[in-house]
């Protein structure tokens, strides 16, 4: 009934979709298994993509040849570039999306990808014979063979939903939990744990009074995620709104604390630190009189509204009473209550940098099974797991991203070397080289890498090279172009910048904090005409590279210094226990995580500089 697949992907969320698409694009025969074909790429929580650091990840996925950026663009209803008032390392694209359109675009993309087959059924276990992975087993007892398996189970592994004192099994509201996989993996020697996440109630937008809320518009000139020409920017956008909780809301919520699964001990798993429930917020920040609430449309035409900032697992009657005391929500009708969900995860220190497990060859984990939270974090792991599963099936070298290559590299390195005891979320502060890892240059950093493994297309590579060449030409021309005092002093005075007494290059003027290329264009009609020939992305890239040249150079020098350690390989079967001089903690951590390079070993908590020196000596022998 089934052929032997190169890659079987279990789960069709954001991680599973990227894994299946990448592996198939690279020439592998792929089977995507899901319990429900109608919920492929479901936006289970907020109808949005991107945000701080997450937007950079979406751009990186796109630059490598993944689909999240394209799907986000095609389903976008609003776009905002966050942190524009800060430096370019902090600029982060974020979109509001049409939930139904997002899922539809992903499904269509997968159906139109050659080499992708689908199977709708619960996967209850792996087929393992003589210690080797042979495929998967379904709930009706079918065995489907494969060279590799990627598990992207999301919140479905023994998922348990909590609403007040009610609890019931499920991976999402209205959908069954997945049973069997955790138990088998534990029997095979894997360590598992429990985590928790939550979602807010959804309300009927027709029942809200928007005059009592602040309007949140999209950007006047919206951008997009994808570097490709297959998507376009928005011509119209939907608005969002902002409102606030108040003391009365907090008092009403507190009435249900005795029935809260968070406070009475029924929820054991740790939730995301940076996305707490509303009850957690008013408990931890009791001194605050109000908390911000974002009212976000679920799509172009639906009246369903997502109440961002009001995630809760309190009893539904308490949720209803409290939400109606928020400004603009006095007559709110609830479509469904918020809930918390507990699920199994596997500490990611059990993985290699390829996301293949250490215990079982050809088995890969991606997404929330690794302890992360967020669509973007899941999608990039799925992409890397799918790429590596495909390369392994084709007996090719693995694909690795370093911390200096991408936020994706930072995320994977963090997970494997540090592990996580709470749902991991990406922030710009986690990346020590964030000035190099900007959202505007993801294509320059990664498209060649995506092309080399057969994922990014010829057109993608050609477009990136044109951008690279035009940026270099523009920077060179701006260094050569000189301005006389009489041609620019009037303009400099207008913006409060020091006038000049002798000729100065356009490049040096651009290094002044008050001056950008758009300001420079107003100084001189000749430069205005010249700059107008270049696309916006080239102008932006040239300006950033000129303004931050010295800082970028310093970061690059640091990367170069550290690269020697990253290139110093450690054999995977290196016997740390046999080295008596290593510290006890060093032996334990090194033996568990099995670093592949000295650079990776240096980032493991508990491994000392002395341990590293000792390993270097032993490897030198």
Automatic annotation (TrEMBL):
Record bears the keyword Cytoplasm: yes
GO cellular component: cytosol
Molecular function (Gene Ontology), one example: flavin adenine dinucleotide binding
Cofactors required: FAD
tRNA uridine 5-carboxymethylaminomethyl modification enzyme C-terminal subdomain domain boundaries: 546-617
UniProt entry tagged with the keyword ATP-binding: no
Any single biological process term in GO: tRNA wobble uridine modification
Major subcellular location class: cytoplasm
Highest taxon listed in the record's lineage: Bacteria
Binding annotation for FAD: 11-16
Subcellular compartments: Cytoplasm
SUPFAM superfamilies: FAD/NAD(P)-binding domain
InterPro entries in the record: FAD/NAD-bd_sf, GIDA_C_N, MnmG, MnmG-rel, MnmG-rel_CS, MnmG_C, MnmG_C_subdom, MnmG_C_subdom_sf
Keywords, sorted A to Z: Cytoplasm, FAD, Flavoprotein, NAD, tRNA processing
Annotated NAD(+) binding sites: 271-285
UniProt subunit comment: Homodimer. Heterotetramer of two MnmE and two MnmG subunits.
PANTHER family reported for this sequence: GLUCOSE INHIBITED DIVISION PROTEIN A (PTHR11806), PROTEIN MTO1 HOMOLOG, MITOCHONDRIAL (PTHR11806:SF0)
Family: Belongs to the MnmG family.
Function per UniProt: NAD-binding protein involved in the addition of a carboxymethylaminomethyl (cmnm) group at the wobble position (U34) of certain tRNAs, forming tRNA-cmnm(5)s(2)U34.
Name of the protein in question: tRNA uridine 5-carboxymethylaminomethyl modification enzyme MnmG
Provenance organism: Algoriphagus aquimarinus
Gene behind the chain: mnmG
């Amino acid at each position: 009934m089934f052929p032997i697949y190169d890659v079987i992907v279990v789960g069709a969320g954001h991680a599973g979709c990227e894994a299946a698409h990448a592996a198939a694009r690279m020439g592998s025969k792929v089977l995507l298994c899901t319990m429900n074909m109608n919920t492929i790429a479901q936006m289970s929580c907020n109808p949005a993509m991107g945000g701080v650091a997450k937007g950079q990840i979406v751009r990186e996925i796109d630059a490598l040849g993944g689909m999240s950026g394209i799907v986000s663009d095609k389903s976008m209803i609003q776009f905002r570039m966050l942190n524009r008032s800060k430096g370019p390392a902090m600029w982060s694209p974020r979109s509001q999306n049409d939930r139904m359109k997002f899922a539809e675009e992903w499904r269509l993309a997968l159906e139109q990808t050659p080499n992708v087959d689908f199977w709708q059924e619960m996967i209850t276990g792996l087929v393992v014979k003589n210690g080797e992975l042979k495929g998967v087993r379904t709930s009706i007892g079918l065995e489907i063979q494969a060279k590799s398996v990627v598990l992207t189970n999301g919140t479905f592994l023994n998922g348990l939903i909590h609403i007040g004192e009610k609890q019931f099994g499920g991976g999402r509201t209205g959908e069954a939990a997945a049973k069997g996989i955790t138990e088998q993996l534990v029997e095979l020697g894997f360590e598992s744990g429990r985590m928790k996440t939550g979602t807010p109630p959804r309300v009927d937008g027709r029942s809200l009074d928007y005059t009592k809320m602040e309007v949140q518009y999209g950007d006047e000139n919206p951008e997009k995620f994808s570097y490709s020409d297959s998507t376009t920017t928005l011509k119209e956008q939907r608005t969002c709104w902002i409102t606030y909780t108040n003391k009365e809301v907090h008092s009403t919520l507190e009435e249900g604390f005795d029935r809260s699964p968070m406070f009475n001990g029924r929820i054991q798993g740790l939730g995301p630190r940076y996305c707490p429930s509303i009850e957690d917020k008013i408990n931890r920040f009791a001194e605050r009189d109000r908390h911000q609430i974002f009212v976000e449309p679920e799509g172009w035409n639906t009246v369903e509204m997502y109440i961002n900032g009001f995630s809760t697992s309190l009893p539904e009657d308490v949720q209803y009473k409290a939400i109606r005391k928020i400004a603009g929500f006095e007559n709110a009708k609830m479509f469904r209550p918020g809930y918390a969900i507990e699920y199994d995860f596997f500490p990611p220190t059990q993985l290699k940098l390829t996301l293949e497990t250490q215990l079982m060859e050809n088995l890969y984990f991606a997404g929330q099974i690794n302890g992360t939270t967020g669509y973007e974090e899941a999608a990039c792991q799925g992409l890397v797991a799918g790429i590596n599963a495909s390369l392994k099936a084709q007996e090719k070298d693995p694909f690795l991203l370093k911390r200096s290559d991408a936020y994706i590299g930072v995320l994977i390195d963090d997970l494997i070397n540090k592990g996580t005891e709470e749902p991991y979320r990406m922030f710009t502060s986690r990346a020590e080289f964030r000035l190099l890892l900007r959202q505007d240059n993801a294509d320059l950093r990664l498209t060649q890498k995506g092309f080399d493994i057969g994922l990014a297309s010829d057109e993608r590579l050609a477009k990136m090279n044109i951008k690279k060449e035009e940026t270099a030409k523009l920077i060179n021309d701006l260094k050569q172009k000189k301005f006389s005092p009489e041609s620019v002093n009037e303009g400099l005075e207008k913006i409060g910048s020091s006038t000049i007494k002798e000729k100065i290059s356009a490049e040096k003027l651009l290094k002044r904090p008050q001056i950008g290329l758009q300001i420079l264009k107003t100084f001189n009609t000749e430069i205005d005409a010249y700059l107008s020939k270049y696309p916006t992305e080239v102008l932006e890239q040239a300006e950033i590279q000129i303004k931050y040249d010295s800082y970028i150079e310093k970061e690059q020098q640091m990367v170069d210094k550290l690269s020697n350690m990253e290139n110093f390989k450690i054999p995977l079967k290196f016997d740390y226990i046999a080295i008596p001089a290593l510290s006890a903690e060093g032996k334990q951590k090194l033996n568990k995580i099995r670093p592949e390079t000295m650079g990776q070993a240096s980032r493991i908590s508990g491994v000392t500089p002395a341990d590293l020196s000792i390993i270097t000596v032993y490897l030198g022998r």
